[in-house]
Amino acid sequence: MASYLANISHNKISADGLSDELEALSRLNVDGIITTNWDLFIEELFPDYKVFIGQEELLFSNPQSIGEVYKIHGCASQPNSLVLTNEDYEIFEEKNPYLAAKLITIFIEHPVIFIGYSISDRNIQKIIESIVNCLGQDKLDLFGRNLIFLQRTKQDEEPSFQSALMSIGETRLNITVIRTSNYLDVYEAIESTKRKIPARILRYCKEQMYDLVKSNDPETKLAVLDIDQIDNKDDVEFVVGVGVAKSHEGISKQGYKGITIDDIFSDIISVKSQYDPAELLREVYPPLLKRPNKYIPGFRYLHALGITSHDELMKSEFSEVEGIIFKANRKDYRINQYGKHYESNYKNLSTREIIAETTAEKATLIIPFQDDGDIDIAAVKELLENNKNNLKTEHSSYSTYFRKLACLVDRLEFGFSKPTQS
Predict the structure, then answer these.
(1) How many CB atoms are closer than 10 A to CB 94?
(2) Would you say 324 and 298 are in contact if contact means Cβ atoms under 8 Å apart?
(3) What is the pTM of this model?
(4) Which strands, in side-by-side order, build the sheet including 160-168?
(5) Which residues contact 353 (CB under 8 A, 6 or more apart)?
(6) Please, how many CA atoms are within 13 Å of residue 268, restricted to the half-sphere of its CB?
(7) Where are the chain's structural domains?
(8) Is residue 275 left, alpha or beta, with left meaning phi > 0 and alpha meaning psi from -120 to 50?
(9) Which residues 6+ apart lie within 8 Å of 345 measured at CB?
(10) Which of 86, 116, 214, 378 has the fewest CB atoms within 10 Å, counting from its CB?
(11) Do the strands 68-71 and 50-53 form a parallel or antiparallel pair, or are they unpaired?
């Protein structure tokens, strides 16, 4: 069973809408994730987060409460850690007060969103009960406000956001319940509040500061270095400072490694690219293979290098890029629930007329239903240029739709097809 669970991958999920949700989820810069799941799904979505497996590991370690995953029911990577049998659950419940002591700061100082759990889930209630027993009346209201349950509804149900009472013994907690058929808007709303510095870097700084203060070793070392060096500098014990460097004219080879997906989307809609296409594809794109992002443009840069067919791509040094630009197929650019709306109201309109008739956000959802030959690429580029901030995840909850449209235009203008496998 552990072997089966360990081989479950988010890359195998193809259900309509779920891949978009997972991509948005993976972009969240949250402090931590607490899960009772055994598979390695979360590790794939958040590869930079520190993972604590089982209560033992969490109880007898020094979690920093930033950039961490707490797998309190164990993990398939360590079969003996799984909370599986009745006896396992009895042992788990015996340690609940100790677990609560570790989690209480997290639950009090942060909003906690429960995804896939019912308010009546026995395990969740036990953990919350242990925390409630440690709190005075003055903290209960604050604690309740931090508990948010996200529940999936049927497609035809209207989303709702409401307060609810959760009974924990004789205590009543006022919690929040969000009900929706699509979690994408929720994830993008969370993402819009993200911090500028990634959680993994904050965790690194906090962890090293703890070790430095704790150490009595007079030879403890300090170092000041560029933030890009942090991942590979094993002997650094504390980061003195993190700042923003002023950009220079031109981009060095080392500078390409700092280019983000946001930068690529800003560049892809520009009249003239600011990047050397070969350096960009060579330095920036290979690491993107490990990211769950389904929509990343790249045909423009291949075209600039004279690569205009799948055969030419696979014979070039950039063959790895295939795994990025062909993640999505043509139908993935359409959100099914808007198909009837397009047929009823927009089918006979041109791209420019669609843009004129509705909001920019809605246009990004309608235009993909046009036939490829009917999409006015120039009009779409103008739309994206006029709304370029919406391509950035921190500025818009609609960024996924604007990005999908940018990828579609990149494919239509510069793309080529991938041979179908027989």
Answers:
(1) 10
(2) yes
(3) 0.51
(4) 112-115, 147-152, 171-180, 160-168
(5) none
(6) 34
(7) 2-191, 256-422
(8) beta
(9) none
(10) 86
(11) parallel
